Amino acid sequence: MTAQLDLVVPEADGHVCPLPHIPEAVSVVRRRVRTVLADWNLAPDVAEDALLVISELITNAVVHALPPAVLRLSRAGTGGRGALRVEVTDAGPAAADGRPVVAPCPAEHGRGLDIVTALAAECGTRVHPGGITWWAELPAA
User: Fold this and answer.
1) 86 touches 138 (CB < 8 A)
2) Cβ(50)–Cβ(84) under 8 Å?
3) How many whole angstroms separate alpha carbon 105 and alpha carbon 96?
4) Phi, psi of 53 (to 5 degrees)
5) Are the beta carbons of 94 and 101 closer than 8 angstroms?
6) Helix or strand holding residue 135 (H, E)
7) Residue 13 DSSP symbol
8) Tally of CB atoms within 10 A around 128
9) Distance (Å, whole) CA 46 – CA 54
10) What is the pTM of this model?
11) What are the residues whose beta carbons fall under 8 Å from the beta carbon of 99, sequence distance 6 or more?
């Protein structure tokens, strides 16, 4: 199965990408989001950090959570103190026993949230009736 993601939907203050619930979602979304970040004229180092954070949060949604999942990107701030907000919302944990939906590669498993924490100015989670939103804010000035 290949990922089909034909659009990034613009919103008033950002963009929304529905996430296919397959391992290929990460590479498909990265390609689409790279264009959005370039259109927003983010510095190349900020864009690369954002792409890494996005990759980690999407991977967690695909591997550990139930569909549907969605990525939201937004920009905020003025006067040179801007921020890029990344949010990935999923329907919550995939299995009561904690087993992932997609078997991760053991050598590459377990460091995603540490990477997000290291790159983001702030990050966290929000639990709500529809699931869980994992978010991170990166300085975009």
Assistant:
1) yes
2) yes
3) 21
4) -60, -45
5) yes
6) strand 131-139
7) S
8) 9
9) 12
10) 0.79
11) none
Partnered with residue 69 across adjacent β-strands are 19
Q: What is the CA radius of gyration of the chain?
A: 15
**Rounded Cα distance, 58 and 92, in Å:** 13
Listed in sequence order, the residues at least 6 apart from 98 whose beta carbon sits closer than 8 Å to its beta carbon are none
Q: Dump pLDDT digits (tens) for 76-89.
A: 765 556 899 999 99
Contacts of 112 (CB under 8 A, 6+ apart): 56, 57, 59, 60
Both structure tokens of 85: 């907000």
Contact indicator for 5, 29 with CB cutoff of 8 Å: yes
Residue 3 reports pLDDT greater than 90: no
Cα–Cα distance, 85 to 87 (Å, whole number): 7
CA atoms of 19 and 1, how far apart (whole Å):
14
CA torsion through residues 32, 76, 62, 47, sign: positive
3-state SS, residue 35: helix
